[in-house]
Specification:
The complex is a heterotrimer of chains A (238), B (299) and C (350). By secondary structure, chain B is mostly helical. Chain B contains twelve helices and two strands. Chain B has a single domain (2-290), classed as ABC transporter involved in vitamin B12 uptake, BtuC. In chain C, strands 1-2 form a two-stranded antiparallel sheet. Classes of the chains: A alpha/beta (238), B mainly alpha (299), C mainly alpha (350).
Chain lengths: 238, 299, 350
């Protein structure tokens, strides 16, 4: 089976609040999948439910053939999933190096140094700040560090929640360049939430449009771009 | 000289008590009001063991550590964690620890009544000074209390700075959700912190009656002072309670002696006000506490 | 109704009035602005100390008493109090003057203590503030226990009975007065509830930054609430002292006057007056029953009073686990009625 992640009829939310309704999604190895949609449509909840940070009411999340919905949150990383959260994605009081070490918390101790070298060769811009405290970095630098941190656990699947939100166009372009690079150099699968569609379209292989907790479109980026109605109504792009 | 030694001893005990409060607040974001009762349990472990099994109370320090670590762990698992898992605010968690503290006050008093009524022990007022040894001309309690506090603070500091576990504990204190995403088991790390905090309180409780009068409300009556130690020391660094314990202990015992020689003996009964005054001044002028201040100056 | 039950009910009513006033003050602070005041006992003790200090001095001044007794007010307090009592028997006017002046002073003391605790409340928030207030709550107990001139140190003092003129109905009158205080506080909170002020307070509680960006002076409002809360606690403290005609620092404990009110309010729900009332009544009843039936439990090898602590702790844990907002939950308050809103929206109904 080539499916790395398969989400079937997922209903999820927080406590009594139902956010996602019968969501189906899959992602094969080496594929970059974009989840787009208006604010509040449940994109982050979808990523959170893979990590069990949201409550799963019914349906299943299957990663590499294993059902994940019974797994405890802290065990998910160990199954090869990295998660770059939109907010609170670095430990501000720790140095960048410590942040990276923490990112490799699930790896055997002996592999941490080796992995750090690999990650630093992929995310080179982080190298100069290794000794700095993460809280003192600028927004763009911090995002870069957070990306590096989420790669430390040797993920098969990387979840990226709006990696360029709140960044300047230059910093956004840098991040996009890194993501493209990652995709080309490694066989990493990615699930990306992104508002900045223009950056995405030449990276991703497949798009899902999520509106009010339901998937209303899935297909290649070209198909989505062709559907002027959807593009205008939900994404504000003509 | 006597009051100098008293102050030094008292400081170490305050530091041990504050250590646990700071540790719990730092790693799990809860102010544990029931910490005072955990200290009391330490004293009652010492009383029970010395009464029924003989030996010096020092012999039972490990036992007090274990019992109180267990009690503190149970408080976390049975009382705090279920409510925290539902996303309760820090205020509600504080109310939970108050509820636990009420239950523990009842249990401790019932136990003390029971010891008194059934075994005719003097369980409502006890002091073990007669069991103490002397070393280099000073009471053993002085050395024991400082050894315990120094060992705990230093070893905890080393763990924090140089091990993966320590890294995870520091990460947990900063961004709990991110720590989970990286694979840290927040529940067991929190449990570990609560147990260690309880253990420290147990040591303090076990040592307390070596020098000071103990009763069922001893920890309860000191909780305000413990909070003062913890806030004054600052919760950012684990050496905060040690520093604050020293300053407050000296202010309370040595300082009041000094003051009474100037102003007159009338001020002595008000020594318990000193921690409150220090707390008030801390909140006004040094909200990050002593260790935060030291850290700011350095870095 | 037999005499014993009559006394039981009257005492229940008296305590109920005091606690209801205190708990409503907690609700004002917690339910409206989110200030977790774990130092309720402070302003209450302040009021109680005023009640212990002032009436006997006012009495000596207003009524004929042997002036040589004033040499040692504390040592002679029982004699002075009973001499003043004799005169108060026949003169409700004097008694009520003493009561009014005492209440004014107690309110002022409560306001000052509220202001004092309000300072950290302006700078701090959340649990940090809560435990600071908890620690400060001990201050007056330390002073009262060690400085005899206030209320006679640990032994306490007896004070003149301002309700002496009511004769056999003395306890009834005092209890009704306590309930009148609670009623006053209730009406005050009720009037806030439906006013723009109430909505502003809740806005500050839910999002201080947003409220402040809308031009509300959050620090000032919080201070005001702390002062108002302090006044209510001070009045309750004085009324309690006047009801029991005595005060001892040991009776003004953190358990009785901070934790117990918290248990009641959390149990009933801080979102509504009715919830607070239910919580207050339930726990006063339980407490009175445990004390009344203490003798029936004398076979236990410990003091049955501890069962009360055990029970409260357990109830609190259960409530927090299964109904964290309390028995009665907060309802939204609307500026306009539904019909008026429909009219404004130009529709028949909403």
């Amino acid at each position: 089976m080539n499916n790395l992640l398969k989400i079937e009829n997922l209903n999820a939310g927080y406590g009594g609040i139902h956010v996602l309704f019968d969501v189906n999604l899959d992602c094969t190895r080496g594929e970059a999948v974009a989840i787009v949609g208006p604010n509040g449509s449940g994109k982050t909840t979808l990523l959170n439910s893979i990590f069990r940070l949201a409550d799963i009411f019914s349906g299943s999340v299957i990663l590499d053939g294993t059902e994940m919905q019974k797994e405890k949150s802290h065990k998910v990383t160990g199954r090869g999933v990295g998660y770059l959260r939109q907010e609170g994605n670095v430990f501000p009081g720790l140095t960048v190096e410590e942040n990276l070490k923490m990112g490799a918390f699930n790896l055997p101790k002996g592999e941490v140094g080796e992995r750090m070298e690999e990650v630093l060769s992929l995310v080179k811009p982080v190298v100069p700040f290794l000794r700095r405290t993460a809280g003192t970095l600028s927004g763009g630098e911090r995002e870069m560090v957070a990306l590096a941190v989420s790669l430390m656990c040797r993920p098969k699947l990387l979840l990226l929640d709006e990696p360029t939100s709140g960044l300047s166009p230059i910093a956004s372009a840098q991040i996009a360049e890194l993501i493209k690079n990652l995709k080309d150099k490694t066989r990493l699968s990615m699930l990306i939430i992104e508002q900045n569609l223009k950056i995405l379209f030449d990276v991703v292989d497949k798009c899902y449009l999520l509106v009010s907790g339901r998937i209303i479109f899935s297909g290649g980026p070209g198909e989505l771009q062709c559907d002027k109605e959807l593009m205008r109504t939900y994404l504000g792009l003509a | 000289m006597a009051s100098f030694i008293d102050a030094l001893t008292y400081s170490a005990l305050l530091g041990l008590m504050g250590f646990g409060l700071t540790l719990i607040r730092r790693t799990t974001g809860v102010w544990n009001v029931a910490h005072g009762e955990v200290v009391t349990i330490g004293s009652y472990v010492a009383l029970t063991a010395t009464s029924f099994l003989a030996h010096s109370p020092y012999f039972y320090l490990p036992l007090a550590f274990l019992v109180c670590a267990g009690v503190s762990g149970i408080i976390f698992l049975a009382g705090v964690e279920p409510i925290r898992a539902k996303g309760a605010s820090s205020i509600l968690l504080l109310v939970v620890t108050i509820a636990i503290s009420l239950i523990m006050i009842a249990v401790i008093n019932i136990y003390a009544d029971y010891l008194q009524n059934v075994f005719h022990l003097s369980s409502k007022n006890f002091l073990f000074a007669r069991f103490d040894f002397t070393l280099l001309g000073q009471m053993g309690i002085l050395w024991a209390a400082w050894a315990a506090l120094a060992a705990l603070t230093i070893s905890y500091y080393l763990v924090l700075q140089h091990t993966r576990l320590g890294l995870a504990l520091r990460a947990l204190a900063e961004q709990p959700t991110l720590a989970v995403v990286m694979g840290a088991n927040v529940k067991s790390l929190s449990l570990l912190s609560w147990c260690l905090a309880g253990g420290a309180a147990g040591l303090a409780g076990c040592l307390f009656p070596m020098r000071f009068q103990c009763h069922p409300g001893v920890g309860t009556s000191m909780i305000a002072t413990m909070f003062a130690v913890s806030i004054f020391g600052g919760i950012e660094k684990m050496y905060g309670p040690l520093l604050a314990g020293l300053v407050l202990g000296f202010a309370q015992i040595y300082g009041i002696d000094l003051l009474s020689s100037w102003v007159g003996p009338g001020v002595i009964p008000f020594k318990d006000l000193i921690p409150m005054i220090v707390l008030l001044l801390t909140l006004q002028f040094l909200p990050e506490g002593l260790s935060g201040f030291v850290g700011r100056r350095r870095g | 109704m037999s005499g014993q039950w009559f006394l039981f009910s009257v005492d229940l009513l008296a305590l109920f009035g005091i606690y209801l006033a205190l708990n409503l003050s907690l609700r004002l602070q917690l339910g409206y602005t989110g200030i977790a005041n774990f130092g309720l006992v402070l302003a209450f003790t302040g009021g109680a100390y005023v009640g212990g200090w002032l009436p006997i001095r006012l009495g000596m001044w207003l009524v004929e008493v042997d002036p040589s007794l004033a040499d040692d007010m504390i040592w002679n307090n029982v004699i002075i109090a009973s001499q003043v009592d004799l005169s108060l028997h026949g003169s409700p006017g004097t008694a009520m003057t003493i009561l009014l002046i005492t209440l004014l002073a107690a309110g002022a003391a409560g306001a000052l203590l509220g202001l004092q605790s309000g300072y950290p409340a302006v700078r701090l928030g959340g649990d940090y503030l809560a435990i600071s207030l908890l620690a400060f709550g001990e201050v007056l107990a330390i002073i009262g226990n060690n400085y005899d001139p206030v209320v006679g140190g640990p032994l306490g003092v007896r004070i003149p009975d301002v309700w002496a003129w009511a004769g056999d109905w003395r306890f009834m009158a005092a209890s009704l007065a306590n309930c009148a205080l609670a009623l006053g506080v209730w009406l005050y909170l009720d009037s806030i509830e439906k006013s723009p002020m109430g909505r502003m307070l809740r806005a500050i509680r839910d999002n201080p930054d947003a409220a402040s960006s809308l031009g509300k002076n959050v620090a000032r409002v919080r201070l005001n609430v702390m002062v108002t809360g302090g006044i209510i606690c001070g009045l309750a403290g004085a009324m309690y002292t006047l009801y029991t005609t005595g005060v001892a620092p040991s009776a003004l404990s953190r358990f009785d006057w901070t934790f117990l009110p918290w248990v009641m309010v959390v149990f009933g729900g801080s979102g509504s007056n009715v919830g607070v009332l239910i919580g207050t009544f339930t726990f006063i009843l339980v407490q009175k029953l445990i004390i009344s039936y203490k003798f029936a439990l004398s076979f236990l090898p410990f003091d049955p009073v501890w069962l009360q602590f055990l029970l409260m702790g357990l109830v609190l844990i259960l409530v927090l686990n299964f109904r964290p907002s309390g028995l009665v939950t907060e309802k939204a308050s609307y500026a306009l009625s539904r019909r008026e809103m429909a009219k404004a929206a130009g529709k028949e109904s909403l």
